[in-house]
Write a structure and sequence with these properties.
The chain is of the alpha/beta class. It folds into two domains: 3-18 and 236-417, Enolpyruvate transferase domain (UDP-n-acetylglucosamine1-carboxyvinyl-transferase, Chain), CATH 3.65.10.10; 21-233, Alpha-beta prism (UDP-n-acetylglucosamine1-carboxyvinyl-transferase, Chain), CATH 3.65.10.10. Helix content is 30%, strand content 24%. It contains twelve helices and 25 strands. The chain has helices spanning 21-32, 47-58, 93-103, 124-132, 168-177, 196-207, 238-251, 271-278, 311-318, 340-350, 380-393, 411-417, and strands at residues 3-5, 11-16, 34-35, 37-41, 63-66, 69-73, 85-88, 110-113, 136-139, 148-151, 157-161, 184-188, 213-215, 219-222, 227-228, 231-233, 253-258, 281-285, 288-293, 301-303, 325-328, 354-357, 361-365, 372-374, 396-398. Strand 24 (372-374), helix 11 (380-393) and strand 25 form a beta-alpha-beta unit. Helix 1 runs parallel beside helix 2 and helix 1 packs parallel to helix 3 (93-103).
């Protein structure tokens, strides 16, 4: 399915944020390990979350969806499956990494695999951490990449973790640590990338009764205990909301998004601060945020190491600024659903913008823009960032537009309902 996005001007739009993908993943994984039945409300219904629900079923854990509510029968840390298990995680890197950790709580081998692209996404840092805590690890192909087979138990102890590629290595170990045989301490070998996602992990763990003792992002300690089952509501997704806010920035006018937590630990909440620095007016109210633009946009310099999922969105906005924008701290974008640094450069250049890349930064150089045909290479975030370009430049054709189903199935419908 291809979608053609036309130029719009001086918009006045209102949207409701979909549920957070990051919170949905973590709440499902933690509820699965809880002692009792949990009721999770406003769970995202998207491809990645369906991969996590599939993983739960593969491990013998019940999870029944009724609309946006999922009821999870927790196993109190004792995984009920018997015999070898294969979990196909598809394209969901979060599912594969979180459940690689959870698999270490079982006594039988669990093999986790996925798509061709998944086999190019590293898990070596996570595997080393699990091995240091007593789990047995085997790779079915290239060392450090899926498929990976994990056999418990998770004894506990101290592990030094290299999270320079993904903070999910630490998140996976933290979630599993509640079911270890003895206390777990994780020491980060260097500053983790995407640090805000560790805040989300700790937030959900605490909500289910397992607090994490920490020293910033240097070390994390967990005293094993069962998670407590509970009723839990997923907050709105700041990553998904960024595409709507960006429409106001590139087209002018006003966009309001409700259903957001203004105090959320989600790192992509920083996106509205970046828009403000570029010249937009941002106002927050209980449960919502409005972004407005009347004058010109200015380029900025910004480190987005902790808000990687909005880098492409900001690059699309930066193409309309009056001066260059440099975004640093983003080397880890090369290991996402696609090489997002290369994909972003190709997308912007196709529409006429100038782009410079180095190892960990991208510089967007504004030039006259025009329509183009964009192939997102199955990457949902590239497709949605291309739509933002289209609303400002006009006549951008997004190929395989349905790939947004991975994180935001209602994206195109929300735009259509808004008259776009």
């Amino acid at each position: 399915m291809n979608r053609t996005v036309h130029r719009v001007e001086n918009v006045d739009l209102r949207f409701f944020a979909p549920p957070s993908k990051s919170y949905s993943h973590r709440a499902l994984a933690i509820a699965a390990l809880a002692d009792g039945m949990s009721v999770l409300e406003r769970v995202l219904d998207a491809g990645d979350i369906r991969a996590t629900l599939h993983a739960l079923g593969s491990l013998g854990i019940s999870a029944a969806r009724d609309g946006t509510t999922v009821t999870v029968g927790g196993c109190a840390g004792a995984l009920p499956f018997t015999g070898p298990v294969l979990i196909d995680c598809g394209d969901s890197g979060t599912t594969l990494r979180l459940f690689t950790g959870i698999a270490s709580l079982g006594r039988d081998p669990v093999t986790l695999d996925g798509s061709a692209r998944m086999r190019e996404r590293p898990v070596g840092g996570l595997a080393d951490g699990l091995a240091a805590l007593g789990a047995r690890i085997r790779f079915g192909g290239r060392e450090g990449y899926p498929p990976i087979t994990v056999t418990g138990p998770l004894a506990g102890g101290t592990a030094r973790v290299d999270a320079g590629v993904s903070s999910q290595f630490v998140s996976a170990l933290l979630i599993a640590a509640a079911g270890a045989e003895s206390p777990v301490t994780l020491e980060c070998a260097g500053p983790p990338v995407s640090q805000s996602y560790l805040d989300i992990t700790c937030d959900v763990m605490a909500a289910f009764g397992v607090p994490v003792a920490r020293e910033g992002y240097r070390s994390f300690s967990v005293l094993p205990r069962p998670y407590r089952a509970r009723r839990y509501t997923i907050e709105g997704d700041w990553s998904s909301a960024s595409y709507f806010f960006a429409i106001a920035a590139v087209a002018g006018g006003r966009v309001t998004v409700t259903g957001l937590n203004p105090a959320s630990p989600q790192g992509d909440r920083a996106f509205i601060g970046a828009l403000a620095a570029m010249g937009c007016r941002v106002s927050a109210f209980g449960g919502g945020v409005t972004v407005e633009r009347e004058g010109p946009l200015a380029g900025i310099e910004i480190d987005m190491a902790s808000s990687p999922d909005t880098v492409q969105t900001l690059c699309s906005v930066a193409a309309f600024a009056g001066s260059p924008t440099r975004i640093s701290g983003i080397a880890h974008l090369r290991h996402k659903e696609s090489d997002r640094m290369a994909a972003t450069a190709a997308m912007l250049r196709a529409c006429g913008a100038g782009v410079e890349l180095d190892e960990a930064a991208i510089t967007v150089i504004p030039k006259p823009l025009h329509g183009a045909v964009i192939d997102p290479l199955r990457d949902h975030r590239t497709a949605m960032a291309a739509a933002v370009l289209g609303f400002g430049a006009g006549d951008v054709v997004v190929q395989d537009a349905g790939c947004t189903e991975k994180s935001f199935p209602g994206f195109w419908d929300a735009l259509s309902e808004a008259g776009l």
